[in-house]
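To: structure subgroup
Subject: Chain for Friday's discussion

All,

I'm putting the inputs and outputs inline so they're searchable in the archive.
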Amino acid sequence: MATSSRSPVGSHVTYSQVDNPSNSMMNERRNTTSSVTTSSKANKKWMRLATVFAYVISVSLVAVVLAVYYTFFWKYDNTGPTTPPPRCP
């Protein structure tokens, strides 16, 4: 009575699926939701573009505020020290 037993890992499972099961799940999800993935990529692209524009505008706004401050409000004090520094021998 010889019984043949198969291993739990069949021939349909590849090494990459055993090594990283999330790859096979991601591939299955990609195949079933391709239209959702396309719109998701477009949303990610617009979101990245919006964050870049927000960063550039915020940095530029700070630069303009500093330029206005130093141009109109900051007073440079050029009185210097009251006594000259000591000379080295």
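Points worth raising on Friday:
The chain has a mean pLDDT of 75.
The CA atoms of residues 26 and 32 lie 10 Å apart.

D.
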